[in-house]
Inverse folding.
């Protein structure tokens, strides 16, 4: 098998950090997510993933975030076996393979054309599954997705790279397209965005963070019909106890400072 060359920059290159994080977690003694597809994908790339500057601690954070979004996705799919899943900013994440939904679920992985082109060379196709090559902020691609079923929109590591107006317009288009569903994603606070120069992986990729919001209820006000049903911090994700003792102590200490605890969190809304 040939190694795949990687020519990604800016926010597109950040998918290398999250992929590497999941691969490192999977190779750890006590994985949190345990994603063998990430190891396979990482090995297919002709790229030294250590350049992403992801440490074992950051890898654990990436795995916790993925774990919670997997749990919410699995719950939605179990409750709605005829669902549509829109996995926005999929990067090289193997969520559809990890969760392996039944073919009654229509699953779409969406990312920029350069990313999808690489993804197609690494991951096999499957029934009821399509990749869409587009910017999520382009209003056109959603027309390719049937709008008559309940939908779960899952987006990991996306919102912070969008401008606020683009993000809100996207959420309004999505909630207007489907009869009902959920939005599950991670979001930074405004302080989290301001502190981006301390985010080694974002800096290594040459990416810029734009959108953070402090009050999750702000989205309820900005996007008609949307209701917050859960806000989860990393300490609350099942699997947190598998972090090394040192990491657990550090996270608990940081979390005792409220603005730091909420720096990045996982949000689940219903519409
Ligand atoms: C931090 S990576 C996360 C990738 C994947 N969700 C994961 O966890 O591995 C950010 C991803 O967002 C994608 N992205 C950022 N802005 C986007 C946009 N406007 N349209 C589509 N994808 C976008 C990038 O291409 C990249 O794949």
């Amino acid at each position: 098998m040939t190694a795949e060359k990687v020519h990604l920059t800016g926010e597109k290159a950040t998918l290398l950090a999250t992929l590497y994080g999941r691969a490192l977690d999977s190779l750890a003694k006590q994985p949190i997510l345990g994603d063998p597809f990430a190891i396979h994908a990482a090995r297919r790339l002709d790229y030294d993933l250590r350049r992403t500057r992801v440490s074992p601690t950051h890898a654990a954070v990436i795995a916790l975030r993925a774990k919670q979004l997997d749990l919410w996705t699995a719950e939605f799919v179990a409750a709605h076996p005829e669902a549509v899943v829109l996995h926005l900013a999929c990067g090289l994440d193997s969520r559809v393979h990890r969760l392996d939904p039944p073919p009654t679920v229509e699953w779409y992985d969406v990312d920029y054309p350069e990313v999808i082109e690489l993804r197609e060379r690494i991951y096999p196709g499957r029934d009821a599954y399509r990749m869409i090559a587009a910017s999520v902020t382009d209003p056109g691609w959603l027309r390719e997705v049937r709008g008559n079923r309940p939908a779960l929109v899952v987006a990991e590591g996306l919102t912070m790279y969008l401008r606020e107006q683009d993000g809100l317009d996207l959420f309004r288009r999505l909630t207007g397209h489907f009869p009902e569903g959920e939005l599950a994603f991670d979001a930074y606070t405004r302080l989290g965005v301001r502190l981006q120069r301390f985010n080694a992986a974002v800096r290594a990729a040459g990416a810029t963070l734009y959108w953070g919001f402090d009050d999750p209820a702000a989205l309820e006000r900005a996007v008609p019909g949307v209701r917050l049903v859960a806000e989860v911090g990393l300490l609350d994700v099942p699997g947190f106890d598998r972090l090394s003792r040192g990491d657990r102590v550090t996270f608990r200490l940081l979390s005792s400072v409220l603005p730091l605890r909420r720096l990045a969190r996982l949000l689940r809304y219903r519409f």
